[in-house]
Amino acid sequence: TAREEKLNFEGFQMDYRGIPKDGNIVGPFAFRLKYPAGFRPNRNYLEEVVRWQKLAFPSPYLNARRVEPATPQARKRAVAVLHEILSLTMNRRLTSDKLEIFHNEYRLPCKLLLCLIKNHGIFYITNKGARSTVFLKEAYDDSNLVEKCPLLKFHDRFASLIGRTCSDSNDLLKA
Fold it and tell me: Which residues of 3-42 are buried (b: 16+ CB within 10 A; e: fewer)?
């Protein structure tokens, strides 16, 4: 139909039952998902993701003592807390050691890494040596940060003035 063609033209693909092919829905409790290029979810997985996306959860800014730890709402709240923490950083990423600091304060799940892996459409985890870093996927387009804060823009300009690339900028800070 014309409506389906319009939706496909706008980049929002749906299958015949009204479930988005990437799990992204519009709603107050939904997160933006970006799956890896080779990931092809089946219909059952997408139905579960859409159900989870529609699930209401308490605000990440409220006290977590009222939330039962083993409920889906608690899992979604933990994802919301991690999303907010990463959104507040300049690079939209943190090492897993730094995320563990927030563990007790925000009552995050004991198996935090498992929570991040289960939500691989929202977070990206990279392991470099013994250190793992968690990225917020919606903040990146490939390997480039979509919205840079003014301080990062200044840092990139400064690095280019002294003849270093942005990838060398971490070494610049150590020198």
Answer: eeeeeeeeeeeeeeeebbebbbbeeeebbbbbbeeeeebe
Domain regions of the chain by residue span: 1-54, 59-141, 143-175
| CA atoms of 173 and 155, how far apart (whole Å) | 10
Counts of helices then strands in the chain (DSSP H, E): 7, 5
Residue 174: pLDDT band with limits 50, 70, 90: very low
Tell me which fold the domain 59-141 belongs to.
Arc Repressor Mutant, subunit A (1.10.10)
> Could you tell me the sign of the dihedral formed by the alpha carbons of 86, 91, 96, 97, in that order?
negative
pTM summary value: 0.76
pLDDT grade, residue 173 (50/70/90)?
Answer: very low
pLDDT digits (tens, 9 = 90+) for 109-148: 888 888 888 888 999 999 887 888 999 999 988 888 888 8
